[in-house]
Protein 1
Amino acid sequence: MPETASWHLLLAYMRPHRRALLLGGVLSLVGSFAGLAMPLLAKVVIDAFDDHRSLVGPVLGLTAAVLVGAGVGAAGRYVLERMGEGVVFSARRRLVGRMLRLRVSEVDRLKPGDLLSRVTSDTTLLRAVFTEGVVEMVGALFMLVGAVVMMAIMDGVLLLITLAVLILVGSLVGLVMPRIRRASMQAQVAVGEMGAVLDRVLQAFRTVKASGAEEREIATVDEAAREARDRGVAVAWWTSIAGISAWMAAQLAFVAVLGVGGARVASGALEVSSLIAFLLYLFYLVAPIGQLIQGVTQMQNGLAAVRRIREIEELPAEEIGGGIREVGAAPAGVIFENVVFRYGDDRPVVHDGVSFEIPAGGMTALVGPSGAGKSTVFTLLERFYEQQAGTITIDGRDIRRWPLADLRAALGYVEQDAPVLDGTLRENLVFAAPGTGEDDIWRVLSLTRLEDLVARLPEGLETQVGHRGVMLSGGERQRVAIARALLRSPRLLLLDEATSQLDAVNEMRLREVVAEVAGETTVLVIAHRLSTVTNADRIVVMEGGRVRAVGTHGELLADDDLYRELAATQFLLPT
Ligand code: ATP
């Protein structure tokens, strides 16, 4: 990504806060200005002392400058910190808003842990850009220019020496900054990587333990943490190189100014008080130079963070649109016409001209060997991915012409591994249809035979089900997922392997449920166990990315070899 794009984004984050930035900046500058006035006031005190005048006025002035400087400076800092939090907040909101709208195909390629670290840790770096970066730099520049002007007024020769030092420091810092930016970017990538590795472990915590892989996984996380540390150390190294060079240059300048200035005082070309004030200004330069370096370093961190945030913002997002929600209630028919699809240009073809037609209402089953492309049918219907060729219509309308929100509102989808989200059972049930009434919830609970479970749970519907529903059994999770899909009152219900984890009694009950639901809406079910779909109105047999036969159980047994084979292996036929 070009450097200017990072800057633009940084400025875009700043724009809504420009008033706060201005106020905080002005307050900080006033604070610095009070600081800048101090050597001058010190000179007044010394001159008053020399001339045997009263010291009360100058000392009071000095005290006031200190107090006002500190108070205003603190207020400025507060305003800026507040603004920094505001920037982090809006960056997080934008990023999260973007992330949830990303296409499934994009998220499938990313690592969740890394995404998490971009929202949590990279955005934090933006705060420092504004609080310690921009404003400190402006403040420091102001101090620097102010001090240089004052020095010019006092003595041109000494100023030249000082300017030579400033140029030296400037070139050194210029050399070091790209290294700081690179190391900072690498440090953030390493933190993201650590998040990704940790996430991997936590997602499969039991598998990690059961595989005795704790030590190996600890070592992997360790490696990522070590990388983050090394990159952080590299940033620290280059920052301190910049800092120490600035400090040493200032000391050099001090010695030179003291020597040359001393000689000029001896020759009568300069007053002692001017030399002292000049030296004080020189000391005053050290702090703003340090601040400047700090500011530029923070800026590099911020630019690296912006780059990582921008990477996500540049990914293609979905156009959700629609959202009328009034998508009707009548069962919807589905037509696949010569659909060709692959998950990526470098991936094998999954659908190689799939065609089938499902009339509205009733139950259709998709069967076929593993990897035949059955789940992919659902993926395409939900438009998580788009087919490369062919047409898919729902209700006679090309799904590409449906607003996404409306399309998905018409579908109920139960994924293969029936995910349950952390939260209460009720939250999970009404997840796809918030605002569902109590009566509907209980009707669906009874349909999906979940009433017993609710009665058994200590807090009924309000019981927490744990991260990914770990406190429920596999079968319960599936029924919760089905109940959730049913509560959406879908016009087309997509059940992926929905019955595979149910015991015989529950499976039979669920068959009754699905049959009942099929009376009200269109049900498309993917099943490995043919026993669950023998009563389907039609069965679509898929193999190798194509539809090889369509018919009822009886018809397929008579006509299709593959189906007969599947039935035979599942003891549905006498062999
Ligand atoms: P199963 O019965 O085992 O679930 P299936 O018939 O449902 O199989 P699909 O899940 O549709 O098969 O997968 C078809 C092919 O697409 C498989 O070879 C799989 O490796 C591939 N595939 C599935 N999902 C993705 C994805 N997100 N990215 C890349 N390839 C994928």
Protein 2
Amino acid sequence: MAKMRVGVYPGTFDPITNGHMDIILRAARLVDRLVIGVAKNAGKGPIFSTEERVEIVREEIASQDHGLLERVEVRAFDNLLMHFAMSVNAAIIIRGLRAVSDFEYEFQMAGMNARLNPKIETVFLMATDRYQFISSRFVKEIGMLGGEVSHFVSPAVATRLQQRFGAPGAERG
Ligand code: ADP
């Protein structure tokens, strides 16, 4: 039997955006099994807990009508990405790349990871043009200030953000 090709798509997903979802759908076509690794990433000060982020990503996947469900799995991880990738027998790590901004960081990370385990290849998928400018960071800032996030995230995620920050225009102390 041919070996299953497993890919890992790691990220903070705080919260998952339309840009992430686009990468997930495209990545799922390249591998037999896709593991979405939700990094605990406490250092980044996420607004949603790891458990919440995992739950949100699972809900997003479940809401898609792409027959992807059986091949995509969502897991939290708190260890070194390369160790996590090895633990799920991944052949590739998938990352999304937006314009210029991501390059330096991603280039370094891919280089370091290649040193840690040259057998696991990092594969970059270019952001689709209409999602190019979407980042979790700005989605959070817009949400925090009561702005409209529906262009960037699913309705379910927009609702979560509203619940977290209070309804738009609502008074906050
Ligand atoms: P991290 O903290 O690991 O950068 P993120 O959740 O911010 O986690 O992003 C996960 C991955 O998704 C990264 O490779 C990032 O470059 C990519 N990504 C984020 N937003 C987009 C987008 N709009 N289009 C394509 N890729 C994206």
Protein 3
Amino acid sequence: MASPSFRTPKGTRDILPGEAERQRDLVNRFGERARLNGFGHVVTPIFEDLGVFKRLGESTDVVTKEMYDFEDKDGRRMALRPELTASVVRAFVQHRPQLPWKVWYEGPQFRYEKPQAGRYRQFSQIGAEVLGTNDGAVDAELIALAWHFFADLGLAKVRLLLNSLGDQSCRPQYLAALTDYFQSRLDELSEQSQHTLQVNALRVLDSKRPQDQDVIDQAPVMVDFLSPDTGEHFASVRRVLDRLGIPYEISPRLVRGLDYYTRTTFEFAADALTSAQNAIGGGGRYNGLAGDLGGPDTPGIGFALGVDRILLACDAEHVFAGSASATDVFIVDVTGGDEASVIVGQLAAAGISASRAYDQRSMKAQFRAADKSGARCAVIIGDDELAAGTVTVRPMQGENRDQTAVGRDTLIEQLSKTLSDIRKTLT
Ligand code: HAM
């Protein structure tokens, strides 16, 4: 067989029927949960001015190495979004909605990463953001939203890692202490981390290189430097999480891969996945971002979850298999095929999914196709039925396989009953 001339670009993949429905189902469940928690749905463009994303961090890989940026035909610097928080805050600044602004989103993100299992150049996120309040209760409620979403999917091996990164009132003192510490052990750090240190000491904590781990493990931690205000905020987040019964681990070196974070930061680790790609979601506060993007000083917090990785975690835990999208009915038309077109349309309009064969195949071939389709019921139309204004309904699953002649005008009614009887015997 000839090999195809084109394949999906490196780091991207086709999501085919079955898996795509499962993904859609997951997104719908998240959207419904968000709606019940008072979030509206927001959709922003897939590309923005490059400047919107610059604030993610001059020392982050996302900005320095992974941005899909390009010049448009008018010479503007644009970028495919690597994440949605910056876009949502840009939209907030542009439209100035009423506070608090609670929104959820879904869609593809683009990062020029080194592809591996669970790490793609195009991947999908679901997420939620709240702008306009600094109340620690919101931090806890957002975390609870994600936590219960995972539980609802059936995921049991998820851990919540929690930290506070402080803010301008205390972060500079911490950064100074951290920089001094790393300087004192500079020789032990990897060459890359020595370089990172010159730009942002916090980012060194993010290094996964084995050579750096011992130095990182003994580094001073932000929670010991929190000001009374940020300390009280962190305590309030933990208090509400305790009240909501959500378990967490304080992870004092969790800095996250983006620079906009202040105060609360968190990540969800799926222990069913290998550690390199076990972050199935993360988020935190970004109280300075709206100001940085030219808006009024407005606190914000949110999270994003990686859809692709969540589904990998579901596979690993054997949960959320997704509903098999079996066709309800297969039409076997031996009168030429036009009637099948009409009946498929009538059934779809009545909410009954239907399929059929094409190219005027033999009755035998059509029945083979009906079997393969997994349809629960066949509707057969031959010349006699056509003349009599009837069809034959034949159940293909369930206990009762008796076929019956049904008038075309009562077909929907009869089929609905037959399908519901089949469903009952299958469950
Ligand atoms: P993030 O940690 O960069 O945060 O991404 C969130 C999640 O997206 C990750 O935990 C992971 O599950 C998934 N993800 C990231 N990169 C990839 C990739 N290359 N392939 C597959 N999945 C990936 C953010 O994006 C922030 N916007 C979260 C946030 C919202 N913070 C505040 N509000």
Protein 4
Amino acid sequence: MSMNKASLECRHISLSYGSTPVLRDINLKIEPGEFFALLGPSGSGKSTLLRLIAGFNQHQSGELLIDGQDISGVPPHARHIGMVFQNYALWPHMTVWDNVAFGLVERRESRDAIRRKVGAALELVGLADYAKRRPGQLSGGQQQRVALARTIVIEPKLLLLDEPLSNLDKNLRVQMRDELKNLQRTLGLTTIFVTHDQEEAMTTADRMAVLDQGVLQQVGTAAGLYDYPDNRFVAGFVGTANLLEGELKMAPDGALQFHARGLGPLTLARPDAAPTLGAATLALRPHQVSIADPQQAGDAARLWLDGQVESAEFLGEFSRYRVRVGELALLSDQPHYAGVPLFSAGAPVRLGIDPRQLRVLTS
Ligand code: ADP
């Protein structure tokens, strides 16, 4: 099956329902062949944006371009975009074969072409032996594959998936995640999917856009967003973060210091660019906070804070400690090994922080 590789661009797209803004000045460019996630909490505007790309929602301002052409006024069926709905929307009374053939029949393709294309699509999703079944006789994962086959068979320019994994149980979700990724690689089709699950976005997407309250917060790769979040929202939504409120100050000797509220000053690594001094948030990942016995000599390259364990959660691969340091509570995740004793609630400890892993956020 030959697939187009289209690019998609949103330029200053805004959409309101009545007087309620739902998408605010969205600027986004998705490259040909990318597997791209729209990630955000419920109500952030992800589905609205996806439906807008499909043509089911109309933006009040801005431009929507496929391969540089504005398609804002083009009706959904003329956009050559394939969309897989969350509930798959299969025809229950039709066989798998007829479900997949439906779009081609509507387009009045020849019987030969239909036979060839439907066969290839079912082969691609691993359902060649299921052609005569009806959707009700298939598992959730198989139904989803039928929905995918039905969409890719029309050779769309762009594939849109609305929460593609949310209707599957946990084990199947991980399996389908891999299948979806492989299928997308095979086809090379520009694909945009919506999810509220950061793990899902991080494990599948080449890049993702994080949305909150209709505002695009940041676009990047999973590691890029995780390591260098632009703001508090992204730091807290992509992965887990300790977020400390405080102030960024320059010490008399020129060192950059973060004065966390309820804690002494922390000397930071030298930044690449001139920092904005003043109110800020310090973000650090729980697994980057080491925990040690207070008597143990600590690595001098780290910042050390005295604290007391408030609670300990054993999670198998690691333990998550909540440690009281002054007025703050910090999370520290430690990898677990048999024979290494855990710290218990009430134990005095020292927390070690690598200053290079600290991120100062000003918004
Ligand atoms: P998400 O997909 O991120 O959960 P949605 O795009 O579905 O978010 O919704 C974004 C916001 O727009 C929500 O506050 C929702 O209540 C509102 N909304 C969605 N559809 C409509 C509609 N047809 N009319 C009015 N408000 C809507």
